[in-house]
Amino acid sequence: MDAVASAVDLPRPVTLTIPPEPPPRLSEDDLRLARACAGGDSDVFASIYDRHGERMKSIAYNQLGNVSDAEDAVQETFLKVHRAASSYNGEAAFTTWLYRILINTCYDMLRKRSRRIREAPIDDLIAGGRAANAVDDVKRMALRKLLNELPEQRRTVFALFEIEGLSHAEIAGILDITEGNSKWILFSTKKQLQEKWKSS
Amino acid sequence: MTITCNQLDDLLLEGDRFSLEVAARHAQSCDACMQKLAGWNEISDTARDLHATWNNDLLWPRIEKAIRNEHRGTRTRVWQVAAALLLLAALGATAWIAQRRMHAADFDETILKASAVDEVERAEKAHIAAINHLESIAAAKLEQPSTPLLVSYKDKLMMLDDAIAQCQTAIDHNRQNAYLRTQLLTMYSEKQRTLQDVLREGNHASNQ
């Protein structure tokens, strides 16, 4: 990102947000992966966990608001993958399918526990890999509060794109919406957040 | 590429690298758009900080164990279903064999019943033949009865013959009706006694 900023010679306060490229789809590999999951192949599950575990935990954490629930959601997602892998038909990429199950599991848990994320204690110490300072902490808490007030779908699109760095194509696949829809939801959500951001 | 402030939203909606570069270039010459873009990017920067990371070495072993347990449970369920199907097949086969045996027993019983009836009919025919022989002996005395008692016997025998004929018709429709056969036997016995009485009365009358 710094390289891009210097290439266009931007002033310091302005930074660019560059969405990552979507990963290539390998249907045959995905089908093989799903078959292995259906067969309960522990090594395959371990490799999926190694590749996606961290992001899955972060997605679940930002949906559910605490570590314990997030870990439960990730575990439940793996169990659902094991149960449903035999019916996986390769229509969506395996990763897309995996994240879709995770998001739906988080939604289910939120509804089942009748607990709103804004009411749950947020452990901000684990959030962010950067060296925290007081200003950043205030900003993060303010943004998290604003996110918690958003409807489910808007919060998810924002989190997947801005927090987890997924592309609109991937988000569209996960949430079963169009790419254009994903762009529009993100844009309108950010506009909404910007308005509240200014007033907060 | 030159844009106006009104087009900034379109570029932010598009959100790709090129659109954001154009927006940034425009913002350099427009304070209002510069502020707007700065706020826009500040949200994105803060959002990236919300990516959560933590280590829990126990999480993967926990997930692995849960998957293993579930897989074992699934396999056990498959075996249970297979065992249930096998049991069902065995029960079905047993029931089928039992039913076949029952059918065979019914068939044997029918055959036995039929042969018992045949035996009864053979005995009846012999009995009737004997009575008919007796009747042929007594016929001469009944053709011209010499006493009022013989006349009375003749009437009685005619009535018995009618009754026997009716009973025989009924038996032809229901061969296995034991009651009708008993009735028939009684009537033939009565006829036999009557014929004996006719012969006795005939001898007595001729002696006088």
Characterize this entry briefly.
The complex is a heterodimer of chains A (200) and B (208). Chain A is an all-alpha fold and 200 residues long.
Please give a structural write-up.
Chain A contains nine helices and no strands. Chain A has 200 residues and is mostly helical. Chain A has one domain: Orthogonal Bundle (Rna Polymerase Sigma Factor, Chain: A). In chain A, helix 8 packs across helix 9. Chain A is globular and about 55 Å long. In chain A, 38% of the residues are buried. The N terminus of chain A is likely disordered. With 208 residues, chain B is mostly helical. Chain B has two domains: 45 residues, no CATH class; 149 residues, no CATH class. Chain B has six helices and no strands. Chain B starts with 7 loop residues before the first helix and ends with a helix. The model of chain B has no long low-confidence stretch (mean pLDDT 87). At the A-B interface, helix 3, helix 4, helix 6, helix 7 and helix 9 of A face helix 1, helix 2, helix 3 and helix 4 of B.
